[in-house]
Amino acid sequence: MSKRKTQPQTPDTDNPAWTAEDLVQARPASEVLSQLFSPERAQSLLTPRGRPKADVTKVRVGIRLSPEVIAHFKASGNGWQTRIDAALRQFIAEHPGSRLIERAVGPGSAQPPGLP
């Protein structure tokens, strides 16, 4: 980490502040990149990086589990939270019509997404 102190009163000549004229002349990257690069390269620069968004996302919750349960799932390495999710899904699949599910999602409600 740099130990240099920033000096807000000193102008940044490498990255000057935008003027109103600069903002008026600004164009979206989709317009500019196709003029500077080949269509394939421009498209690759515009494609979002990272993992694609999932259609069905999981819900973040806080849950308290016994130390034995955590130790059991962690003992087999990374992905232990996914394995707990799979074990709970298996329990739900093996106990169809359970009143536990009705209490969790409400009577007459549809099954949670992703369950059989």
Structural descriptors:
116 residues, 6 helices, mainly alpha, elongated
3D structure, described in words:
- It is a single chain.
- This protein is mostly helical and 116 residues long.
- Among the domains are: 21-46, no CATH class; 76-105, no CATH class.
- The protein contains 6 helices and no strands.
- α2 (29-36) runs antiparallel to α3 (39-46).
- It starts with 19 loop residues before the first helix and ends in an 11-residue tail after the last helix.
Topology overview:
Blueprint: H1 20-25, H2 29-36, H3 39-46, H4 67-74, H5 80-94, H6 99-105
User: How much strand content do the residues show?
Assistant: under 5%
State the share of residues found in helices, binned by percent: 40-55%
Order of helices and strands: HHHHHH
Can you summarize the main beta sheet? none
Q: Stretches where pLDDT falls below 50 for ≥5 residues?
A: none
Instruction: Average the pLDDT over all residues and give the rounded result.
Output: 83
Count of DSSP strands: 0
Number of helices: 6
Structural class comes to: mainly alpha
Anisotropy-based shape: elongated
Distance between the termini: 51 Å
Radius of gyration: 26 Å
Short description:
This protein has 116 residues and is mainly α. The protein has 6 helices and no strands. α2 (29-36) packs antiparallel against α3 (39-46).
